[in-house]
Amino acid sequence: MPSVIRASDDAHKPSWVFVIGQSFIVGVGEPAPEGVVSRLLALVDDPDATIERIVGVIPLAGEDAVESFGLVSFPAPGEADGSDRRITAIVRGTAAIDIHSPGGSRRFDDRGIRPWHLADFTAVTGLALASRHEPLDAHAPGRAVDLRSRRIRATRLEWLREGAESADTEQTDAAIVARTLPRPVGVPWFKAGDVLYSLDGTALIGRRPRRRAEDGDDVVALITLESPASTVSGTHLELRRHGSRIVATDLSSTNGTIAAIGGTRRPLVPGEPQTLGVGATLDLGDGAIVEILPVDADPAGGPSEKKA
């Protein structure tokens, strides 16, 4: 990972704990659990620290749960010839990674995808990891970071590929290729339409779901269901994770939500949360059905899989 790294500090902006490894950089939003940081530090000199192993030491639930983090993984020596300048990036929560290429810069954030948003990028000449509330800025000033410093605290970390400023004059934007990682353990699943979703926070479901004022800066997944007769309301239903269970709330929809629980069908009381067990279904009308699946459901051979 031949590079130059700079860090910026601003007492008025969110801070991060950055861990810099041989082939990766991780930023954990403050307050960063010390146990998580220690496990990341244990991987900094490990040449076999794959992205799966790195993500595996960042818990999404429990006492050390990490709400926001950004991760950049660089190819191991010999894994690629470097001509495509490839990286893999993962973001969760308020983390954002600004990707720089000869053709310009673009921002990569989680877009409400849970438990994280992951993608591969090529033609990368540099990047910056900070809060998504920061403006897109390819040339933020900062102090040089001694690459022997494996752990630093800053509001922004910028990485520049060595020699990138004078190389590559072609105008090629960073390319993005989506892919998936092994699913996190202990996360509840549900099916909406023909798609399986893992729920690691809150999802709003409807014909045209929209964020609400009370969502604030929380990461909320928006899931659209087709409703040709417009029976399903715009923002019809909320699903929220509670441990390994799913809690559903009808958001005062026009036509209501019918819950089938243990063979009994009854309408959800608008605004009143209802804990659902495995096998329960929610009928939003117009053929729009949500089904609660077992924790860590295996979608192999089934419909497409997404994260909410």
- Name of the CATH architecture of the largest domain: 4-Layer Sandwich
Helix % is under 10%
What is the general shape? elongated
Radius of gyration: 21 Å
* Strand order across the largest sheet: 11-2-3-4-5-8-13
Give me the secondary-structure category: mainly beta
Query: What is the number of domains?
Result: 2
The average pLDDT score comes to 81
* Strand content bin: 35-45%
Secondary-structure element order, as H and E? Answer: EEEHHEEEEEEEEEEEEEEEEEEEEEE
**Total count of strands:** 25
Please mark out the parts with pLDDT under 50 across 5 or more consecutive residues, or reply none.
165-181, 299-304
The CATH class designation of the largest domain is: Alpha Beta
Number of helical runs?
Answer: 2
Quick one: biggest sheet?
7 strands, antiparallel
The separation of the N and C termini measures: 33 Å
The CATH topology annotation of the largest domain reads as Phosphatase 2c, domain 1
Domain FHA: 203-257
Protein name: FHA domain-containing protein
Keywords: Phosphoprotein
Pfam families: FHA (PF00498)
